[in-house]
């Protein structure tokens, strides 16, 4: 049978077999190798980006450490400025004294513990019942603002006592949170206290 096949047919068979072998080689090895190369190039790009980010982070590390040290110093300074736990009575006395000095009648102060937002710092919720005309109340609120280093005003509700008066008295309910330091006594100068 091979004797009957001429050179032309043999050449065609060799060409077809070569094309089949080239097709199989392309689909099984070359195409897979190209996909793997593309994957590796993508991974190299990702790793290069991560390397650049890592180098930038390494360069920024001293600044970050300096910023952290600065924040820690600020936190320590703030904690030293908080009134100590045993000085809380002076804080309440300061609220009363400021009310008297500004002409505000402090009817009552109620307190309730609020939890520990930061280690060694305790929050105490206060509810103050006040009575005064608006100008005096405004001055008292400005006085409380001077205590902002260790207190926050959470709410203010006002009602008018007599709407017919030219300068009516306001009944005011003020809620605030006062923070006191419960840790070891701060070292250095005594920066805390109600007058801060």
Reconstruct the topology from this structure.
Layout: H1 7-81, H2 88-102, E1 105-118, E2 121-133, H3 134-145, E3 151-160, E4 169-181
Antiparallel strand pairs: 1-2, 2-4, 3-4
Helix pairs in contact: 2-3
Tell me what the structure shows.
52% of the residues lie in helices and 26% in strands. With 196 residues, the protein is α+β, with helices and mostly antiparallel strands. The chain has a four-stranded antiparallel sheet.
**CATH domain fold name of the largest domain:** Alpha-Beta Plaits
Examine the secondary-structure arrangement and name the CATH architecture of the largest domain: 2-Layer Sandwich
Element order: H for helix, E for strand: HHEEHEE
**What is the CATH class designation of the largest domain?**
Alpha Beta
The global form is rod-shaped
Count all strands and give the number. 4
Low-pLDDT segments, ≥5 res: 188-196
N- to C-terminal distance: 113 Å
Q: Give the DSSP E fraction (strand runs of 2 or more residues).
A: 25-35%
Which terms summarize this structure?
196 residues, alpha+beta, Alpha-Beta Plaits, rod-shaped, disordered C terminus
């Amino acid at each position: 049978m091979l004797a009957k096949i001429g050179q032309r047919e043999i050449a065609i068979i060799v060409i077809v077999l070569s094309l089949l072998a080239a097709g199989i080689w392309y689909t099984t090895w070359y195409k897979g190798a190209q996909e793997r190369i593309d994957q590796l190039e993508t991974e190299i790009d990702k790793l290069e980006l991560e390397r650049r980010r890592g180098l930038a982070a390494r360069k920024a590390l001293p600044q970050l450490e300096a910023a952290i040290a600065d924040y820690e110093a600020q936190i320590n300074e703030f904690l030293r400025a908080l009134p100590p736990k045993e000085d809380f009575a002076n804080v309440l006395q300061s609220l009363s004294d400021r009310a008297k000095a500004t002409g505000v009648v402090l009817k009552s102060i109620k307190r309730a513990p609020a939890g520990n937002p930061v280690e060694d710092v305790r929050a105490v919720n206060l509810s103050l019942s006040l009575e005064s005309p608006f100008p005096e109340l405004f001055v008292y609120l400005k006085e409380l603002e001077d205590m902002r280093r260790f207190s926050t005003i959470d709410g203010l509700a006002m009602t008018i006592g007599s709407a017919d008066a030219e300068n009516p008295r306001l009944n005011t309910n003020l809620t605030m949170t006062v923070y006191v330091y419960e840790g070891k006594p701060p070292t250095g100068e005594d920066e805390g206290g109600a007058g801060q």
